[in-house]
Each structure stands twice: as structure tokens, then as C-alpha cells.
Amino acid sequence: MAKRANENVPAWLRTSAGWSWRLIALTAAVALVFWATVQVQLVFVAVFLGLVFASVLNPVADFYAKVMPRPLATALAILSAFLVLGGLLTYVVASVAGQWEQLAGQFDTGVQQILQYLESGPFGLSVTVDQINEWINQGRQWLTDNADSLVSQAAQSAGSVFEGFAIFALSIFCTVFFVASGGKMWRWFLDQIPSQHRTRWQAAAGAGWYSFSGYARGTVIIAFVDGVLAFVLLTILGVPLAAPLAVLVFIGAFIPLIGAPLAMIIAAVVALAANGIVTALIVTIGIALIGQLEGHVLQPLIMGKQVALHPLVIGLGVTAGTVLAGILGAIIAVPLMAVAWTVFSTLRGDRPHPELDDEPSGLRDGPLAVAPVVDVPPADPAPGGRTPSDASEETPDK
Questions:
Q1: pLDDT at site 78
Q2: How high is the pLDDT of residue 374?
Q3: Would 274 disulfide with which of 66, 106, 147, 381, CB 3.0-4.6 Å?
Q4: Most confident of the ranges 4-18, 62-76, 84-98, 202-216
């Protein structure tokens, strides 16, 4: 009866039903992953940052490991990173302290010029000093009325700062082990997988790590180049606080699509307040050209095909990540999508990175760098043409 009932169901309906329950199961699995990630968001972010740091520091540790033990090379690589970042931060703070008073005076002059332009602007827009004073008084009244909520938000921000330090400390802890003994950790994980599946896991993980490390290292290199070019441009134009603004451009490069434009706007505003509208226009055009150089020259040259995602997919992914997790989601959306697509393509049998075919393990460096995985051959047949597993599954007749 059941067979006859199935014959009465149209083929298209059976096919649609089969795909429907598969899509429902896939959606439920993805939702479960997102829910679990949110529950341990601090740990997830720390591990993600640890992998990013490891992808950047691992080549440095490999270089040091040529003349010293791996643990010492790892410590020296992390110390080198701290010295470089600490030197940049010290330079930025010194620059701000030395030019802050000058910038404050120039900014006040620029604001007065903007107000005068608005009072006699060609577009019929008129803003008087009395109106500005009224807006300032309204702002003060709003601060007085919302003091309690602002205090509570400040307390929440203090908690966020503490969480940020905790995430950073945990990410450094993870980085130490990823760089020093990531291969051993990955080998232990492979040992937990049935031998007949280890080759596919190794190939998929190798391709995924190749995409992730390429994106992370490429982003750092591109952000550094953007920051240097912005610093040179702002210094030539005589814009105050060129170093902090260049660092802002460097940081903005880590946020796809929206980070660099925001940094450009801030730099243009400072240039407008300090040096006038002509300098602001030159800064805007110059940083826009730096963005074009990044998109059309640096990214294809540095990242190559390691992150083969269409710009539409990147835009939708960054938007979805921003909606789900704010700035954090915007930052991690692109590398996660790149890794997911690479792993899926590899498991499907495609070759997203043919350049890895020359290396049996599919891995060049990093926490997943292990020896090639060799499939374990089946056991020799037992007497009578049966394998030992077949013989063990039989039960003697009573």
C-alpha cells in the first residue's frame, strides 16, 4: 500500500519534499552553530584573533626557528610584534601631545569659517550664532535629562573594556600554542577521525587555512601600505596629526567596504578644519586614489586567488555580519565566508587552490602544518577470504 501511495505522488513533489527537508535541516544546523557561537562569543572571538595573530606571526617564528628552538622562536616573534606595535603607539601618542594645542586652535578657526560660509552660503541656507547657541543649550539640557542613562551606559562600556582585555589576553594565550605547537594539536585532532576520512579532512582544512592565512596576512600588509601612503600624503599637505590619522586609516582597512571611507571622511574633516577646503579636497581625492590602488592593484597582487569571492557576496556578507554582530560581524564575515566556501569546494571535489597540489598535505605553514596524511590500507584477509572484522562479526551457531 505504501509503495502504491508513493507512486501516486508526482515526481516533482517528491523531489521538492526531499530538498525541502534537507534545507530545513541545514538551516537548523546553521542556526544552532550561530546560537552556540553567541553563547561563547568571548571564546570564539579570542580563538579567531589567535588564528589571525598566528597566521601573521608564524612566518616570523619560522624564520627565527632556523637558529633556535621553536618555543624560543615563538616567544621572540610575539615580542617583536609587541615592540613594533608599542613603537607605533608611542609615536602616535607623542605626535598627538605635540600638536594638540595647534590643532585645537586651527579647528576653532575652521569652525568659524564654516559658520560664516553657512550664514552667507549660496544655497539659501542660513545659520545664525543665536541658533547655534540654542542648539548648544538644547544639547546641555539633553545631557542633564539623560544623565542616569549615560552613567549606566558608561558602566556597561567599562565592562566592555574589561571583556576586551580578557579577549586580548586569551587570544595571545591561544596564539602562543598555535604558533609553537599547532601541528601537534592538528595531528591529535586527525587521530580522532577514522583513517579513511583523514585525507579529505586534511585537504579541506589545508585549503581553508590557506585562504584564511592569506586573507589575514594580506589584510595586514594592505592596511600597512594604506597607512604609510596616507601618512605621506597628509605630511606633504601639512595636515596636523598625520600619524594618528594614518593609524586610523590602517585600522579602517580591517573593516571591509566601510572602514576606509570612514577614515577618509575623518581625515578630510581634520584637513578642512586645519588647512581649508582646498586641502580637504586634495586629501579626499588622495585617499580615494589610495582606495583604488588597494582594490585594483594591492589586493590582486598580495591576496591573489586565496579569497575568491564576488564583490556582491562580500557586500551581502558584510551587511549580514553587521546586522548580526555589529562591527565584529563586519570584520569576520569575509574570512569566514572565504574559508567556508573553500572547504565546501574542496570536499565537493573541486580544486579551489591548484597551487597546493604540489604539497601532499595541502598546507604550507601555520597551526595546521603537519606531515602528509597517508590512508591506512585495509587489513589482510583472514583464511577463507574474509577479513578479521568480518570474522569477528559472525557469531557461532549454538
A1: 92
A2: 43
A3: 106
A4: 62-76
- pLDDT, averaged across the chain: 74
Q: From the CA atom positions of the chain, what is the Rg in Å?
A: 29
Query: One-letter amino acid identity for 323?
Result: V
Q: What is the pLDDT of residue 395?
A: 44
* Grid coordinates belonging to 149: 542613562
Bridge partners of 382? 386
Q: Are 78 and 54 in contact (CB under 8 A)?
A: no
187 neighbors 66 (Cβ within 8 angstroms): no
Measured CA to CA, the distance from residue 67 to residue 56 in angstroms comes to: 20
Round to whole Å and give the CA distance between 274 and 60.
41
Q: Is the Cα dihedral 165, 171, 175, 181 positive or negative? A: positive
Nearest to 222 by CA among 273, 285, 279, 290: 290
Q: Which residue has the cell 508513493?
A: 6
Cα-to-chain-centroid distance, residue 193: 29
Sign of the Cα torsion 48, 52, 53, 57 reads positive
Residue 149, amino acid: S
Please, where are the H alpha helices in 120-146?
A: 129-145
Cα–Cα distance for residue pair 213/311, rounded to 1 Å: 20
- pTM for this predicted structure: 0.67
Side-chain-side CA neighbours of 32 within 13 Å: the count stands at 6
- Alpha-carbon distance of 267 to 388, in angstroms, equals 73
Check: CB of residue 74 under 8 Å from CB of residue 182: no
Q: Are 285 and 302 in contact (CB under 8 A)?
A: no
Q: d(Cα 122, Cα 382) in Å, to the nearest integer? A: 96
> Rounded mean pLDDT of 352-356?
64
Residues 206-220 as b or e (16 or more Cβ within 10 Å = b): bbbbbbbbbbbbbbb
SS3 283: helix
What pLDDT was estimated at residue 19?
87
pLDDT greater at residue 150 or residue 65: 65
Q: CA quadruple 167, 172, 178, 181: dihedral positive or negative?
A: negative
Our measurement of the distance from residue 120's CA atom to the centroid of its chain's CA atoms, rounded to an integer in Å, reads 46
What gap in Å lies between CA 91 and CA 153, rounded to an integer?
A: 31
Place of cell 601541528: 183
CB atoms within 10 A of CB 322: 18
Q: What pLDDT score does 201 carry?
A: 85
Note whether 240 and 103 are within 8 A (CB).
Answer: yes
